[in-house]
Amino acid sequence: MDNSTYTTLTRQSGLMREMEAVAHNIANMSTTGFRREGVIFAEHVKALDGNEPSLSMANASARHIDLSAGALTQTDGTFDFAIQGDGFFLVETPQGERLTRAGSFTPDAAGELVSMDGHRLLDGGGTPIFIPPDAQDIALAADGTLSADGRPLSQIGLWLPEVPTDLIHEQGVLFHAEQGIVPSETATILQGFTEGSNVEPITEIARMIEVQRAYEMGQTFLDREDQRIRSVIQTLGR
Known about the structure:
Layout: H1 3-27, E1 37-46, E2 55-65, E3 72-74, E4 81-84, E5 89-93, E6 96-100, E7 105-107, E8 113-115, E9 120-121, E10 138-140, E11 145-148, E12 151-155, E13 159-161, E14 167-171, E15 174-177, E16 181-183, E17 188-191, E18 193-195, H2 201-236
Antiparallel strand pairs: 1-2, 3-18, 4-17, 5-6, 5-9, 7-8, 10-11, 11-12, 13-16, 14-15
């Protein structure tokens, strides 16, 4: 197998990863709090012996998370919250604390606010938020202060990854910051709203077509290269 074939194979592998990311984005374009992902291509160049030109390989192992805001939808739900600005809610999962922009919560049997997946919402001190069973008028201030019948209950924490590029998309709408989190100083919260996905369907479909065409071109080259090698072997074997 020659260098051109190796180069094309690495490119094909990267295009497959990007196709997976685009398909995942399209599948979640209606998911509350979802963040679009893209694939980052890097080029690795290696010098070869003699007078041969250098060898270039493509690598697409890293993913980029688009943190731009999604559209807000008014639900008038008491425990539907949307973040304005840079920040994340912090929820408690079996794997540890995770960040999310999905702001649909509800009190569980114990009176604690939980996400749609049953993960407890945490306040600024990392403590679950309890809603008294007899609470009637639930109000949320822009700074995250949650009140019931005019009495403060807790303050919802808003957080950012300490390193902006540190976010890892784990599953659904959950993110993990490996190097820790810090409080968000500028973000605010709206009550009665949810934030939608930031996926642009037309853009993603157009990108899917581009990736598919690029992959088909690469596959055509590999097929022709395979046929060329077979013809050489047959000629030499006569």
